[in-house]
Amino acid sequence: MTADHVFAALASPARRELLRLLLDEGPQPAGRLAERFDMSRPSVSEHLKVLRDAGLVAENRKGRERHYRLEAAPLMELRDWLSPYERFWRERLADLTTLLDDLPDETGRDETGRDETGRHQTLPDETEGEKEDDDVRRQDD
């Protein structure tokens, strides 16, 4: 199957849920899968047919039942198709991280603790501010 068939099959939330069920719970008969959905059994069977035609599930007949299992090969092909885009976004996010690291923080300092003039800046000790607040409260009493 082509990537287009696989993408078309994955476009449906119901079909993605069928794949998730087969991944999490293993091969199952169509009837058991249909019980999990708020739709008719023929509708679930149609979704399973689309997945089968795309190569995403395999069907085995056992007596009168049809059992379905996940086939991962088409998903691997999609992963291969998507990997250049993953690299693209990873590079963009790395560039963004570098840009953000170079920006000064809300105190005007960069990651080294230096301000825009290049001087190392320290913040006043917060405990001193707390002492001043306590002194003001005592004077008000």
Automatic annotation (TrEMBL):
Pfam families, alphabetized: HTH_20 (PF12840)
Biased composition (Basic and acidic residues): 106-123
Xref: SUPFAM superfamilies: Winged helix' DNA-binding domain
Chain spans, region Disordered: 100-141
UniProt domain HTH arsR-type: residue ranges: 1-90
InterPro entries cross-referenced by the UniProt entry: ArsR-like_HTH, HTH_ArsR_DNA-bd_dom, WH-like_DNA-bd_sf, WH_DNA-bd_sf
Molecular function terms from GO: DNA-binding transcription factor activity
NCBIfam families referenced in this protein's UniProt entry, alphabetically: HTH_metalloreg
Protein name: Helix-turn-helix transcriptional regulator
Species annotation: Nonomuraea cypriaca
